[in-house]
Design brief:
Distance between the termini: 57 Å
Number of strands: 13
Number of helices: 3
Shape: globular
CATH topology: Lipovitellin-phosvitin complex, beta-sheet shell regions
Length: 277
């Protein structure tokens, strides 16, 4: 019995030692000659409560603005991204097709078949250069193009070598237009590697939101937190699943009025990755 206990202890110690010394070479990005089927689900609830002078509140009534104002938003977006062969410099073309983009009522946000073209490398995210969309107004084309390019610029992640239990930090600026006011904040995201196997690495995500307003006309305070999980496909060095739950509160004061915002959001993105021969 003593020998058995000793053997179990030695085996357990060895397994723990082996796992703790696994090293993940984290370098998220696209690969040449690969197909990415991505589905994004985003649900948000907003509640805005106004207070202020009688004149201000009367103006809200005249403009039929409910107080508080509640907004529920749901989006489902499916995209198909394809990359081509890399040239001598390591650059390869990428095409992103919107297969489906609808709101919670089934209303089309972006027409299916909308295509964006650009280039990428294995160490840099895509830089889009054109958009093709049949029967889409030029203004909406520009919005879609700028949104996609801006999203890629905010998704840049550092290349890291991590052991289980280690983490890295990413900071991203964000601007939200609310009631005609641009709300500026900084999102600090911590990714902590909790486990891994030969195919996948699993991270816990924690976020904090801090105000960073440059508009001095308003006295603003606000904060938020987020939490979620990320699955990193090791062979394809790409995120195969990403989930986040976010809560944010904001108070904004002006001479004649004040506004309180409460928001909750759920985000989930999954990716199916196959090689394009």
């Amino acid at each position: 019995m003593k020998k058995l206990i000793a053997l179990l202890f030695i085996s357990g110690t060895f397994l723990n030692y082996g796992q703790s010394n696994q090293i993940l070479d984290f370098k998220a990005g696209y690969s040449p000659q690969t197909v990415y089927n991505q589905t994004t689900l985003n649900a948000s609830d907003y509640e805005v409560t106004y207070s202020g002078s009688e004149t201000f509140l009367e103006t809200l009534k005249k403009n039929q603005v409910p107080n508080p104002t509640t907004i529920k938003s749901n989006m489902t977006i499916e995209t198909l991204s394809k990359t081509g062969k890399a040239n001598k410099e390591g650059m390869f073309p990428i095409t992103i097709e919107y297969v489906k983009a609808v709101d919670g009522n089934g209303k089309i946000i972006i027409p299916g078949g909308t295509l964006l073209y650009g280039n990428a490398t294995s160490t840099t995210l895509p830089k889009m250069d054109s958009i093709v969309a049949k029967d889409m107004e030029e203004s909406l084309k520009n919005v879609v193009f700028q949104t996609v390019q801006s999203t890629f610029s905010q998704l840049v992640m550092p290349q890291k070598k991590l052991k289980i239990g280690e983490s890295f930090v990413q900071e991203s600026p964000l601007t939200l237009p609310i009631a005609g006011i641009n709300i500026e904040m900084m999102i600090t995201t911590v990714y902590k590697l909790k486990s891994m196997n030969s195919k996948d690495a699993f991270f816990d995500i924690s976020q904090t939101y801090t105000m960073k307003m440059s508009d001095t006309r308003f006295d603003t305070t606000g904060s938020g937190i987020g939490s979620g999980e990320l699955t990193y496909d090791i062979p394809n060095h790409f995120m195969s699943e990403n989930t986040l739950k976010m809560d944010f509160n904001l108070n904004l004061k002006h001479t004649d009025f004040s506004m309180e915002l409460k928001s909750k959001s759920d985000f989930k993105q999954t990716s199916v990755i196959t090689k394009n021969k």
